[in-house]
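Quick one before lunch.
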Amino acid sequence: MKNLLFIFFCPLIFLYAQQEKKVEDMLFQLTNEEKITMCHAQSKFTSPGVPRLGIPELSMSDGPHGIRPEINWDDWGYANWTNDYVTAFPALTCLAATFNPDLSMDYGISIGEEARYRKKDILLGPGVNIYRTPLNGRNFEYMGEDPYLASELVVPYVKGVQKNGVAACVKHYALNNQEQWRGHINVEVSDRALHEIYLPAFKAAVKQGNAWAIMGSYNKFRGQHCCHNDLLLNKILKKSWGFDGVVISDWGGVHNTDEAIHNGLDIEMGTPSDRSHSKRYPYNSNFLGNPFLKKIIEGDVEESILDDKVRRILRLMMRTSLNKDRPFGSINSKQHYETAYKIASEGVVLLKNAENFLPLDKSKQIKIAIIGENAEKSMSVGGGSSELKPDKEISPLFGIKKEFKNAVIKYAKGYSSNPDEDHDDLRKEALTIVKESDVVLFIGGLNKNNFQDSEANDRKNYQLPYGQPKLINEISKHNKNIAVILISGNAVKTDWKTNVKSILQTWYLGSEAGNAIASILSGEINPSGKLPFTFPESLTDNGAHYFGKLSYPGDGESQYYKEDILVGYRWHDTKNIKPSFSFGHGLSYTSFELTDINSNKKNYSTNETIKISCNVKNTGEFEGKEVVQVYIGKVKSKVNRAKKELRGFKKVFVKVNKSEKTEIEIPVKNLAYYNEIESDWEIEKGDYIIYVGNASNNILDKIIITIT
Ligand code: GLC
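Model of the alpha-D-glucopyranose complex:
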């Protein structure tokens, strides 16, 4: 066996050694001036190469959901090119809701092909900041509230992107869990919560995903900006995790030359240029520009520190811009739209479905009233740096009309995000068509406007905006057959939910949005999404808000994560606070039975793997997919712990009246908690409860095991 491993790994080791030799050869030829220029921007989204040696510059682009329209060389304006129309992939909350790592690989490959085709060497994504509060403006760009789910999904995405010779730049490292005061807010959080909740997805991206780049975040942690934070970048990322890639600052996230030099930053981006300083090299005034060069020349800084930065940059170039074997990419292809559609339709979550109201029979001539601005609003624009210029974007209204050709469909906006519109007229118009229809599809939610799921600002409250709750309740007085289709990247207050029969959580779904929503409504696709975050009944039921302003959003200087490790369902479970909809919840048009739930053993040593098996039987009338979820909690722990934590999941397809055996493996080492006294992970011996179900609030069996 050892020989086999050696034969497998030997070529890889040889290739890595060859690459490293080339890096050293190039490094040796560079002047200090050339090295310094590589450590900062030369434009909004490029950093320089070395023209003298034919080393190409590095080109970067947002974002996590698709390749952002071309930005001007030296300002934030759009260049209005005509070749930068792209595929808009679903937001990463949708990907998380699929609970399907295979789709995450498809996502990474497809978006990486589009980045490659657009000649981008670094994709500024994915984002994996943990969902701590439903008000965070950028939660739609991330993968939910659970570190294990985010870890399982970020790894294939990163690998898929990098198969194209494009670096994934995982962001925003770390603790960027709100947009309010994002540029300076100082986060104070325990080591346990840092290592158990906020870092795991970044660690997985580096150690399992082999990410080639990481983006520092704007905020501070324990008083130091994260773009040059010694603990996060030098001690944890580079030393403990062995990260051999490049740390890139968030745009304008650098504030101090000495810290940027010594605390692990490799490329400074987004600091403004200064053409008064130099027309030819306006970015040389950056913190890692001339001030850095001066310190090198005067011997105040070891050249080895500069060489380490440049070595990492050259290594990233060998993997991307200098990689002559990388593929050519593709854009707006049939495959990419199929990928976008698969992820969109598999990420939609059926939250409620009273009387099996959905799916609607598309063969019948039913009268459908479609109400809501989100039925026709483009959701690929707005939201900040993740916005896109899609070559195609199917609106819900268009998709539903296409799917329900036999129906009589009338549309009314009902409400508007534009305060100048006459809301009473809109309301009356909606009620008129509601009264004469068989079915009402209310398509609302948030919309990526400012304060409504957008970068640089958080939501101001938990409610659905623009008077939607009142309109939903009023509609229900005239027509009980209502399905609400929520388009959002965050939980919203659902105190109107008793007045409607069905609720779909349908994310920002991108180019194929309307087709995916229509397929779910007609039953062409059986929904199989599960919530990647909790819907609290009210904001103060959420752990981040329970402790008041110092916890969220802070006092303008600092904030304290007082809920500590109890984020999301961990809080609700442990404090016994029933949410409106739970993490991992998602209904189907069919029904499943989980039986024969077993573990392979009852006693495990710390280096073993727990194997949980169960049968998933489809007892309904639709074929479909179910997500078996395994949570584990320690009995009588010596430290404070959540009642249970997600430690394994598997999505399984089951035909009608068939059963599928499912097995989930959980290494015992994954049960460790972070011992703050030892500053290391510790596996507690003793009893654990294994909870197996299809949602965090729907546990079908428990198994007691013992770690000896
Ligand atoms: C923005 C965002 C970051 C983005 C970068 C470049 O401020 O925080 O996610 O990649 O700047 O647009």
